[in-house]
Amino acid sequence: VQLVESGGGLVQPGGSLRLSCLASGFNFKSSVMSWFRQAPGTKREWVAAITSVGGGTDYTDSVKGRFTISRDNAERLVYLQMNNLKPEDTGVYYCKAGPLRSDGRAYWGQGTQVTVSS
Fold it and tell me: Smallest Cα–Cα separation from 45: which of 60, 56, 30?
């Protein structure tokens, strides 16, 4: 299983970024995919999730109306579109797969840094 995030960077408050996560090594279409983030000195927190069937989505309250999670099953990609970014959105963003049906485990990418600052 491999998850590779990309798309992070430095952006001013009010700006936008789109994160991508390229997945391989497992049945992507059947797996719930999630985004988490971790700011310095804090615990990793859940941000958004998208189901395997139907593409149902859910978000933590602080990003509702600003972030959108989506997936492209053909390309094995999951996205996080982030609009109206705030300084408190700063952190390392991680893609998570699963827990997978195949082994009951969850897998993580290496993370991509998002910094919101003027």
Answer: 60
